[in-house]
Amino acid sequence: MKLSVSARAVAAGGIATVMLLTGGAVADAASAPPRPAAAPDLPLAGVKAHLTQLQSIATANGGNRAHGRAGYKASIDYVKAKLDAAGFTTTVQQFTASSRTGYNLIADWPGGDTSQVVMAGSHLDSVSSGPGINDNGSGSAAVLETALAVSRAQYKPTKHLRFAWWGAEELGLVGSRYYVNRLATGDRSRISGYLNFDMIGSPNPGYFVYDDDPAIEKTFKEYFTGLGVPTEIETEGDGRSDHAPFKSAGVPVGGLFTGASRAKTAAQAAKWGGTAGQAFDRCYHSSCDTTANINDTALDRNSDAVAYAVWELSE
């Protein structure tokens, strides 16, 4: 899916055109710093390939990727291997919850101003009753493919980029809370924004944007406006995912969501399609949350929105 040109890019292009037409602008244009390259159109096939791998991991490990289970550790190992090969500096953070060992995976892209850190994250664990492909393989796969796109582009942002995959979210945001609570005050203040992606491929999708930090919210809305896709403010998962510990610590947060167990209204079905009166995800926290439980259009749009926001907010 092709990304819309941002309002800033359009404005910049218009100004440059006027300057060139009025003369004397060639030297000014040549001396101006180049605008960073636009975010790439993420390959849907790449995102879905990660989901296939997470499904295979769950199938080989008792049908789930839950905290403290072999399927979760194998999921961490899969993501880490991809990032290590792509040139990221990875750190595995270990913690204990419910008498089981859990893991967070943090990946830093070399370069950028470390006093201004843009983070994008998702929880990688499933519930014990299913493989967790929409919840939250979808967010995890999109964040991973965005990180790999950063590597492929050899992107050199002004700000420092950090990606994260959290453990034990399903037990009460344990992994992300552990990470935030162990950050020094100065390190927390260096995070200019945390972007959270928890369920972005629901089979009967809505298009919901967090209304926490205004600048982050505006960035996501700008992207969807460019597609002609209306959005609504996210309320179903408010405070129930890994952005909450960051928000409590004073970090600006934002994110995307396509809906869980709430039913889609008739008005929502009229503007987004899908089935009114049916849950956004009928397989929420169930064994049927498999690779068959994904809406490709929603996954594609939201994955591209992840990349768009990472590029826009880190330039």
From TrEMBL:
It holds the Pfam family Peptidase_M28. Its cofactor is Zn(2+). The keyword Zinc applies. It is an enzyme of class 3 (hydrolase). GO terms for biological process: proteolysis. GO terms for cellular component: extracellular region. Its EC number is 3.4.11.24. It is found in: Secreted. Residues 104-309 form the Peptidase M28 domain. InterPro entries: M28_fam, M28_SGAP-like, Peptidase_M28. Keywords: Aminopeptidase, Disulfide bond, Hydrolase, Metal-binding, Protease, Secreted, Signal, Zinc. Residues 1-27 form the signal peptide. Its main location: secreted. GO terms for molecular function: aminopeptidase activity; metal ion binding; metalloexopeptidase activity. Monomer. Belongs to the peptidase M28 family. M28A subfamily. This is Aminopeptidase S. It comes from Streptomyces violarus.
